[in-house]
Amino acid sequence: MTHPHDDPAAEPDADFTPDPDDDLVDRLAAIDEEEAHQRAQSLRSGLEAYELEEEDRALLEAFEADDAAPALLKPAPVLAIVGRPNVGKSTLVNRILGRREAVVEDVPGVTRDRVRYSAEWGGRPLTLVDTGGWDIDARGMASRIAGQAEIAVDQADAVLLVVDVTTGVTSTDEHVVRMLRRAGKPVILAANKVDDERGEIQAAELWSLGLGEPHTVSAMHGRGVADLLDVIVEVLPEFSQVDAAEEPGGPRRIALVGRPNVGKSSLLNHLAKEDRVLVDNVAGTTRDPVDEVVELGGRQWRFVDTAGIKKRARQASGAEYYASLRTQTALERAEVALVLLEASEPLSEQDIRIVRSATEAGRALVLAFNKWDLLDEERRHWLEREIEKDLAHVSWAPRVNISAKTGRHAEKLVPALDAALAGWDRRIPTSRLNAFLGELVAANPHPVRGGKQPRILFGTQVSHRPPHIVLFTTGFLDPGYRRFILRRLRETFDFTGTPIQLGMRIREKRKRR
């Protein structure tokens, strides 16, 4: 019987009261490496008396961590994709990427921030920056969307201007061209929505923009996109002249998650020291995950601002549905989930669900309580009670009290993130893990159930990020006993800020022949 991903927190408590005077850490400290290794070897040899499968033997192989220090990588060239609203910029991005990554809906203004995507063509890596529609007469939020597009142009190596041939050249297109000329960046002109010869004739009118040959494409159907990409890689430099070099794998990746309007975008703007993401009192301003490399604590971090999670994905619709899916994808690609919670309001079911989604994705976890500067003593008292009640299952997560708007205590995010990542990365040597289990079980054996007492035969950490520990046992361990093991693992080996996957492989003794 195999239980590779048991979650004892999701099961009812069993009656198990551990020894309150257990000095496990001191006893482990008294065991030297040679003794621990001999104990583990003895237990491993004893496993051969039990029925083992090929998968068991694979799990028992040594797990080696790669500690090699990587060299700096030169960054891929950056291409900003601009144009007026609803000309098909995001559709073209999806066509280049070969997947539905950018949010697309048949209404203008779905893309609001500048959003980066990694792509490749002909073996050449490049970074695409999708932008919101640029409009000379924009007001309010639309004006800020246009501002994000101008910043994207300024921070790009080259620009792809997308024009809709079905409407022809407009005054807005002419204003965009003037803005691009001022920027002084190489510009490639894409004539989109060309599906036939008639479209080719219409595209000829775009020579009047003075940007050279219009390259005809149909982002929807893929027509001409390969030829356009050939032109793009010829124009782009081999390495970016605007992006900084990064380590392989990039800076540590932090997903900013939380319900709408909790302050995620404000925090990213403060950390980036610029208006990197649109901020508005209207919930749902951010729709695509927006990433930015920021310097914090003297180091680079890649923060990803995500759409606020309002509903379960299956209950959402339209752009909100796809934004929800992309938020989940961003979370799964991150290393740490930085969950923003509004300290001035009671914790909601939504907040609890977001925290649980981060742990279920196996990400390290840091809880940031925003708007802490607005709390009075009474609210602080009740917040502590709410945390004890509703977030007890993640009591191991570091907590930081901040103000996203003013940046108060933002520097405290660094030690919290470092602690969470250290726990997420941690690898317990097999010898130490089995010495720990031996001392733990000797002092606190599993209760007898139905006349039987299951034993732990051997333990091994089969992976990290997050830590995944498998126990070979003679019977099923009660949920309460597994919670006890997890708690002591955290205390002994400092698994701060990370979920731990604890699995069981129940094995019977070989039958004598």
Description:
The N terminus is likely disordered. This protein folds into three domains: 144 residues, K homology (KH) domain (GMP Synthetase, Chain A, domain 3), CATH 3.30.300; 158 residues, Rossmann fold, CATH 3.40.50.300; 173 residues, Rossmann fold (3-Layer(aba) Sandwich). Helix 2 packs across helix 14. The chain is elongated, with a radius of gyration of 28 Å. The chain is α/β, with parallel strands linked by helices.
Summarize, please.
This protein is an alpha/beta fold and 513 residues long. It contains 15 helices and 16 strands. 34% of the residues lie in helices and 18% in strands.
**How is the main sheet built?**
6 strands, mixed
Structural classification = alpha/beta
Number of helices: 15
CA-CA gap between termini = 22 Å
CATH topology of the largest domain: Rossmann fold
Q: From the alpha carbons, calculate the radius of gyration and give it in angstroms.
A: 28 Å
The count of DSSP E runs of length 2 or more, i.e. the number of strands, is 16
Strand content: 15-25%
Topology record:
Elements: E1 2-3, H1 24-29, H2 33-46, H3 54-59, E2 78-82, H4 89-97, E3 115-121, E4 124-130, H5 141-154, E5 158-164, H6 171-183, E6 187-192, H7 197-203, E7 214-216, H8 225-235, E8 252-257, H9 264-272, E9 290-296, E10 299-305, H10 318-333, E11 336-342, H11 349-360, E12 364-370, H12 377-390, E13 399-401, H13 413-425, H14 430-443, E14 456-463, E15 468-473, H15 479-493, E16 501-506
Parallel strand pairs: 2-4, 2-5, 5-6, 6-7, 8-10, 8-11, 11-12, 12-13, 15-16
Antiparallel strand pairs: 1-16, 3-4, 9-10, 14-15
Helix pairs in contact: 2-14
